[in-house]
């Protein structure tokens, strides 16, 4: 339905509401403010809602915190705890769960390295269970982790690699972490989306591969993603919008040019800019210059959230003291 590149369900819902002035039929939305974090829960409940949204049925939970780009230790801890709280609602509820963490992306490209960096910080325990021949533990879950790389370096579809691992290790669920794309610069590196519908590796840069979901793997898949990029058309559209807002206090208001720009809908501005840029190969994928530091921080936040959510007896004190 929409041509704007975004992986966030909340943004697709925003676009629909801006265009139609109503909510999507078959989609429920709940918004909550928890400390410094704004939480938007989008639940796509039927096939019609999925068709309109262009996303699979399931729950999409988005955590927003604009201060995350320059977060201090206390704020990172707060977001980790909020993430863990939301994630616990989606993790397989059973005694002694077996969980596979998958870090998607290319560790050689910083905006795409979120998944591999998260995997390097999660607390894996499967080898300990095997070493001591343990079937279960009241304090720890049986956790394994893999960063399978990308098809350009392995020659294999990521889903093929993960499917083989699932068949061999037989986890109860998969938690997949990947970089995403947003339609707004303000949400880049400040937003975390959790979804129950799985994920398509490479979707953040418009290179979708075979999906990792319950249908393809046979077990529940929870996806965690952070938008780390926008395309140039989106960035330019946002810039024009800011210029129009700035001009609202100037003498140019009321001029024919201003009125023309002001009457353009967001989708129309985006399409116009993209049509101008793409013939020159200029519709680039853009990321903020401080992305190196941000990816390290976001990886720590997500890893801490996962560690707290999946291991019954691990809390924030433990992850900060022993697991960093």
UniProtKB/TrEMBL annotation:
Pfam families: Peptidase_A25. Belongs to the peptidase A25 family. It is an enzyme of class 3 (hydrolase). Its EC number is 3.4.24.78. Autoproteolytically processed. The inactive tetrameric zymogen termed p46 autoprocesses to a smaller form termed p41, which is active only during spore germination. The gene is gpr. Residues 1-7 form a propeptide. GO terms for molecular function: metalloendopeptidase activity. This is Germination protease. Signal peptide: none annotated. Homotetramer. Initiates the rapid degradation of small, acid-soluble proteins during spore germination. It catalyses: Endopeptidase action with P4 Glu or Asp, P1 preferably Glu > Asp, P1' hydrophobic and P2' Ala. The lineage of its organism: Bacteria, Bacillati, Bacillota, Clostridia, Peptostreptococcales. Keywords: Hydrolase, Protease, Zymogen. It comes from Serpentinicella alkaliphila.
């Amino acid at each position: 339905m929409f041509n704007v590149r975004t992986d966030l369900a909340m943004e697709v819902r925003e676009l629909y509401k801006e265009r139609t002035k109503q909510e999507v039929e078959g989609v429920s939305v709940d918004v909550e403010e928890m400390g410094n974090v704004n939480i938007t829960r989008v639940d796509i409940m039927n096939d019609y809602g999925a068709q309109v949204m262009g996303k699979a049925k399931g729950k999409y939970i988005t955590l927003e915190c604009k201060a995350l780009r320059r977060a201090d230790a206390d704020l990172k801890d707060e977001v980790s705890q909020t993430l863990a709280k939301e994630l616990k609602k989606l993790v397989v509820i059973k005694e002694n769960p077996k969980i596979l963490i998958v870090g998607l992306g290319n560790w050689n490209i910083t905006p795409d390295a979120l998944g591999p960096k998260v995997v390097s910080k999660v607390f894996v325990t499967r080898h300990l269970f095997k070493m001591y021949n343990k079937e279960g533990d009241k304090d720890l879950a049986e956790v394994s982790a893999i960063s399978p790389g990308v098809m350009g370096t392995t020659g294999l579809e990521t889903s093929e690699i993960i499917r083989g691992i699932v068949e061999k290790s037989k986890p109860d669920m998969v938690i997949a972490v990947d970089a995403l794309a947003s339609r707004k610069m303000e949400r880049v590196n400040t937003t975390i989306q959790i979804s129950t519908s799985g994920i398509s590796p490479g979707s953040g840069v418009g290179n979708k591969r075979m999906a990792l979901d319950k249908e393809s793997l046979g077990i529940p898949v929870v996806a965690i993603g952070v938008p780390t990029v926008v395309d140039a058309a989106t960035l330019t559209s946002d810039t024009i919008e800011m210029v129009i807002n700035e001009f609202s206090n100037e003498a140019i208001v009321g001029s024919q040019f201003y009125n023309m720009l002001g009457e353009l809908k967001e989708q129309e501005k985006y399409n116009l800019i993209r049509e101008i840029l793409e013939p020159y190969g200029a519709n680039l994928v853009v990321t903020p210059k401080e992305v190196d530091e941000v990816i390290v921080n976001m990886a720590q936040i997500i890893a801490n959230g996962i560690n707290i959510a999946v291991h019954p007896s691990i809390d924030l004190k433990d992850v900060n003291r022993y697991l960093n």
